[in-house]
Amino acid sequence: MGPLSLTPDRSIDVAPHPHIGLQTVTWLFSGEFLHRDSLGSEQLIRAGQLNLMTSGHGIAHSEENPGRTSGELHGLQLWVAQPLNTRDGSAEFVHLAEPPRMTLENGIATVLVGEFADAQSTARRDTDLVGVELDLHGGDTAFGLDPTFEYALIVANGEVNVGTTPVRPGQLAYLGKGADECRLNSSHSSRAMLIGGVPFDERLFMWWNFVARTQDEISDAWRAWAARDERFGSVASPFDRIEVSAPPWMLQTR
Predict the structure, then answer these.
(1) Domain boundary, last residue among 199, 226, 243
(2) Fewer Cβ neighbours under 10 Å: the N or C end of the chain?
(3) pTM over cut 0.85
(4) How many Cβ atoms from other residues are within 10 Å of residue 155's Cβ?
């Protein structure tokens, strides 16, 4: 999300909408945002803090500007598919005000989820994975990797070289799997997100905000949302919920 310079007439608000079968990992580089959900959670998140929402069988939430009319909002939200044994379970929301941080050569690592070097996040994870913010100060940086994971690097600002390949904002560099070390270089201050995990061996079916395995599961979720079923509950938000037309395969059978 962003980077966006906020003004009285320029903001970001995401009205109430549903999710199934995934976790949203919300992380801000600058600014602040207000999370509300159908569990009754209301949580302000600031830069350097983590919001982790597990949707399971179903949850609805909104993401709102808490009234800021100046400054910059810049962040990232990762979606993590839940495995079979938890994806139909209960919804949950947690907030970490101070995720673990550690010093690297020419940088600082903040562990959002999982384990990295000698640091471990207390955030829930349903599969073996990791998410780490890398605040790079320029120069060379090296760190160990788990060879059973596959990894990627997302650059938020600046420019990071993976070997001889420059990676810029908006790009994702796939680092592959089987490696036990990663070496990066940045010529000036840069910020990136390292993500990785054991390769996911389940075939996914995704439509809109729903992660499932079949079209029928998606159809059931859409019907529940359209009918304002208790499956998703309601969000105490000043914004009207987001409505969406039926999935294309349902329209084709009408």
Answers:
(1) 199
(2) C
(3) yes
(4) 23
